[in-house]
Amino acid sequence: MHTWSPDRSASVHGETALFARSHFIHGLSSIALFTFTSAGTAFAGDDGHEPAPESARPVVLVAGLMQDETTVAPLLEALRAQHLDVTLWIPPNSGLDDIKGYARQLGETVDQVRRRTESAKVDLVGHSEGGVTARRYIKDLGDAAPVHTLVSLGSPQQGSEGGFLSEILRFTGCEEWAEACRQMGADSEFMTELNSGDATPGDVRYVTVGTRLDGVVQPVNRAGIPGAKNVIMQDECPLRAVGHFGLFEDAWIHQVVTAVLAGGEPEGDCLATPVGGII
Q1: Cα(1)–Cα(18) distance, integer angstroms
Q2: What is the pTM of this model?
Q3: Residue 278: CB partners within 8 Å, gap ≥ 6?
Q4: Is the dihedral of CA 258, 259, 263, 266 positive or negative?
Q5: How far, in Å, CA of 248 to CA of 146, rounded?
Q6: What is the pLDDT of residues 205-222, one digit of tens each?
Q7: How many whole angstroms separate alpha carbon 59 and alpha carbon 203?
Q8: Do residues 22 and 215 lie in contact, with contact meaning Cβ atoms separated by under 8 Å?
Q9: How many angstroms separate the CA atoms of 11 and 99, rounded?
């Protein structure tokens, strides 16, 4: 298993909000294709699957910017197919507002899940902004965070310096009117604060997965967290061509997340299908 350490000394380009712009445009196109959920809705794991094993912790799947239940459905269904109790949390206002506020709201859902399942801790799985929100929630609580494992997928944990999608869409101006867009820039005050002090607080297992073909989070090492188990898909499966949004539908990712939640290493079958999309 190859691991890598995020380079926090990498130079920061002037386009600090390029990451969020591409997400924003993707979301706009999604409006024409999908019906969005009610803002801030949490969907409990009562979908008819067999109950989770008693040893399994409940999972909260944390969505990101301009994402809804249709966007995350492949990963959500894959986890529930493993008989896990999964609650989907979607940020209000399409994830455009203050991530610190989202972290507090996520905490309310975590508390509700713990009460419903009578569990001491939960596992968190977040994609893109969702992984950042989950990490901020843990950082705010520190040792008191009721979280066993955080799995971060394609999240700009060190802020993003760009990517081809971000470059193409850099003129959307998202950072001028959306707080979350500004916060996910590589040199933002939010990112400086998030990565100051202990980068992996609490008694939590941290695992991140990035893809070299991520058109949003670049360079790819900015998806990592110092002190975490940081994995790059192509270091394990060189021929697997999966982009930022393709992480949701990729079978290797599904296997990796399932393995980690079960306490194992972030490993999967490089020949697993389906392979996520390139975008």
Answers
A1: 31
A2: 0.84
A3: 213, 241, 242, 243, 246
A4: negative
A5: 25
A6: 999 999 999 988 999 999
A7: 17
A8: yes
A9: 24
